[in-house]
Input
Amino acid sequence: MIEQPQEIRFKGLGVSEGIVIGQVLRMHDGIQNVYHWKLDIDDVDSERHRFRAAVDLARRQVMAIKKQAEQRLGKDHAYIFDAHLLLLEDKKLTDDVERQITEHHANAEWAVKVVGDRLLSLYSEIKDEYLRERGSDIEDVMQRLLVALSGAEPQPRSLSEDAVVVSQDLLPSALAELDLEHARALATDTGGWTSHTAILARGIGIPAVVGLRDFYRRTRTGDQIIVDSNRDEVILHPSSATLERYQTETANRIRGRVATEAGVVGPLRTEDGIEVILRANIELPAEFEGVKKYGARGVGLYRSEFLLARRGVIVSEEEQQLAYEEVARVAGDDGVSIRLFDLGGENLRELSQEAEKNPALGLRAIRFGLVNEPVMRTQIRAILRAGQSGRLRILLPMVADVSDVRRAQVIINDETENLTKEGIPVTPMSVGAMIEVPSAVWTADSIAKTVDFFELGTNDLVQYTLAVDRGNDEVADWFRTLHPAVLRSIDHGLKAARKAGIPAIVCGEMASTPAYVVLLIGLGATELSMTPSAIPRVRRTIAGIDSRVAREIAEACLKAETADDVEDLVRERLSQLWYHLFPPASLPARRQAR
Amino acid sequence: MVERTLTVKARLGLHARAAAKLVRVASGFDSRVELRRVDSGISADAKSILSVLMLAASRGTNLQASVEGDDEEAAMMAIDELFAEGFGEMEPESAK
Output
């Protein structure tokens, strides 16, 4: 019997929305080892000719790519390749390479590498993040020259119907050479919001998840894969249960869309009349239109990390301000919670430190901001300034207890004062805390007295409560969203908020999964925030249930001993009570006895 | 020689695409076209894309353009126009 490979999930950054089920097509990024040798004096001339011939070949290739890109992507995207052509024609570049060959008797490959590296290092000093990232154009051209020198023609790539292109990094021209009509999705190890992969994927409208770290080497061409940009992840070797869930979800999404178009907007109430507010989690501008389209009441969670692009640098105060103003416009009167950068030092080159042994438990989120105060101050100033033109709230990620909140508030007050002194008007802003680690859950009472609202981040809460890394397939059996400890934590957090009279928004995967939503409503949640496209199905669920019945189920679940018990309860009760809302595939799968 | 101070209005600065447009336009004239950053004094040959890219001119950067040659007036006009219209990139694109 062939051994069935285990399902593995990888977290990245969804940069172009959508979900695709397909097959892996691995693409090597073509980075080659370059060797150095010293030429005989007699060979210098022929080496220069060899280089010129390679430049010619590279130019012809780029012209062909450009033409193709114009037809497929439009002139706007094809302009990138005009820049590549100009680079190949640039005397400064070709003269430099030829000088290396003539003066240092270097082989052409080495000469190209030396000149390219020098240019790239100059480029990496550029302060402007967007311009600096364009160093990849130089890298691309150098790469093409090296391939041309090796005499290899780039292989034409024809793709099968459901190919998901997986690569370490996709240089722009490699991407354009792809048979894009057939590529269904992209998944890369590196890359960020403004990488070419991201821009082109959005341009042609296929899902893409980037920044997957060491994903590429774990794949084989032909492996089954799900790219879920909406949840920032890819799933390799999905189990049949996962596949089924995704197929249902895709079907639901289509139905959901029909429901919104039919005008299901306005206040949402359970059957017994409890109003529930649904907000949107967003990160990418591509998701902005979903806020209105799916009838979200503003933005419950704006992940600001996307502003820090692939090369990992802090964006200026002005740029941040512009970005926040735009989200505020999208969110409208219901406002937006801007979560401060939720990342660690490993994401930021300027501040990069020794790799931490255990980053999930390390210097990240609010801790990172408190240690790197200038980063946090810049962000807070940008939010405060943007607050003049829209309704913004500040959300503090991963607070351990009230002391983190107090330290952040000192900084917020400081910067409010500074801005006022500088003559920039500032209006007071709500400050909320993410409740997502156990220490915050169990001191939620005191935190609730200090902040204006709570947000319960269920993804991290599950991970930290159960001490299980969701990306580690070895412990996948221990990752149980419906663990009684998780439910009790949520219950505790919600109660603390109610007692203090502040709103609590539940976000994370739980809030977007209909079966789990029943429990959240049962625990008294009245505000949920989720990826916009999930809103229609959650809406349908909530409108079809009675919160009093949901409470009964939730209370029984709180008393359960194990996640298995909770799942059994949920499966039985939901399918009995609301079979029309919960077809079997939408419920937690029955587990094999362990 | 004609000289003029130009401001980069393209939303993303003089990045590869905008620089490519500039180099194409400048190369269409015989005159020598030099751009110099007003703040740092770094200068670039407008007919070399590498040189233009190394200016690292983000939005709002002021550049002193000096054009010298037989067709200097026409060249300056064309370049001025390119800067004035922000290289056709003033509108926010969906990608950012």
Q: What stands out?
A: The beta strands of chain B are 2-7, 32-37, 43-45, 62-68. Chain B has a mean pLDDT of 86.
